[in-house]
């Protein structure tokens, strides 16, 4: 099943994409895609409900804005340097254990919303990433059991301001959390839609030029390793996001480095998880 949310910002409604490609409104189910939904076996309950009512559900015009397919997750846990070639282009060693950092949930926007270049930014960069959605509370999870805690997957562009991230004092979070820096979706694909998350092509273009082109088989730490590892240090709640890292081809790694300017168009996608598009805009009050 593919979960979507649609409508104007902060007023999104839940929906699904049917197998025939139609977008339908599931507001009648009475639940949005939040922590309680996933905690209470919402995916399976919704699947049964949709199968009974699919023919009578209101259709959604495909010109309608798609919002973030999750409602207010408690956290975004990101994994740095999780593709060997990206570590190399960043001038850093491949880590021997996952490098973790947070991204503020206030950065979340819809998949095709504009990306706003932050005030005083000179180095806004792109990062196509596979995001994992947690399906149930996870604490001290064994790697062999980790996939039982996964609800599904989605596309994420982990926008990053490299000066804020790398040239300022302190942690990476400053360069990761600017408003609009976490476009997610277009949909959450439930786990049954993706038989192998470690064999998915992923790509990103800027102004039509292909800059990132890789496959999740190149992940240094795979999904069960990440779920288990992170759960040793914090409790993952239903609906939480793990963003698994980006492959080579970011602006920081180009020679010379290249960053976004107002008017630039970023397009990205992951096999089985759809695509998204953001237009870069300058910050204004």
From TrEMBL:
Span of domain Fumarylacetoacetase-like C-terminal: 75-277
Descriptive protein name: 2-keto-4-pentenoate hydratase/2-oxohepta-3-ene-1,7-dioic acid hydratase (Catechol pathway)
Coiled-coil stretches noted in the UniProt entry, renumbered to this chain: none
Entry-linked InterPro entries: FAH, Fumarylacetoacetase-like_C, Fumarylacetoacetase_C_sf
Residues annotated as signal peptide: none
Keyword list, A-Z: Metal-binding
Keyword Protease: no
One record GO biological process: carboxylic acid metabolic process
PANTHER family: FUMARYLACETOACETATE HYDROLASE DOMAIN-CONTAINING PROTEIN 2A (PTHR42796:SF4), FUMARYLACETOACETATE HYDROLASE DOMAIN-CONTAINING PROTEIN 2A-RELATED (PTHR42796)
GO molecular function, one term: isomerase activity
Family: Belongs to the FAH family.
Pfam annotation, one family: FAA_hydrolase
Source organism (scientific name): Maribacter ulvicola
């Amino acid at each position: 099943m593919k979960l979507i949310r649609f409508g104007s910002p902060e007023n999104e409604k839940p929906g699904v994409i049917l197998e025939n490609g139609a977008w339908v409104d599931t507001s009648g189910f009475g639940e949005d895609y939040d922590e309680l939904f996933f905690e209470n076996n919402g995916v399976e309950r919704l699947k049964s409900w949709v199968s009974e009512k699919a023919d009578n559900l209101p259709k959604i015009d495909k010109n309608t804005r798609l919002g973030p397919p999750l409602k207010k997750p408690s956290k975004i846990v990101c994994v740095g340097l999780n593709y060997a070639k990206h570590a190399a282009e960043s001038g850093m060693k491949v880590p021997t254990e996952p490098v973790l950092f947070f991204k503020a949930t206030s950065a979340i926007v819809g998949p095709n919303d504009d990306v706003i270049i932050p005030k005083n930014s000179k180095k806004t960069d792109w990062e196509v990433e596979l995001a994992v959605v947690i399906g149930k509370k996870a604490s001290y999870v064994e790697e062999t059991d980790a996939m039982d805690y996964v609800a599904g997957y989605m596309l994420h562009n982990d926008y990053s301001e490299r000066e804020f991230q790398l040239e300022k004092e302190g942690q990476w979070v400053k360069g990761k959390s600017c408003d609009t820096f976490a476009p997610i979706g277009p949909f959450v694909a439930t786990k049954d839609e993706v038989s192998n998350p470690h064999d998915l092509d992923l790509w990103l273009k800027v102004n039509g030029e292909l800059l990132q082109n890789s496959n999740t088989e190149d992940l240094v730490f795979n999904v069960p390793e990440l779920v288990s590892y992170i759960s040793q240090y914090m409790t993952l709640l239903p609906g939480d996001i793990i963003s698994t890292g980006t492959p080579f081809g970011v602006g920081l790694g180009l020679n010379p480095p290249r960053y976004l300017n107002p008017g630039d168009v970023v397009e990205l996608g992951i096999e089985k998880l759809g695509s998204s598009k953001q237009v870069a805009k300058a910050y204004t009050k």
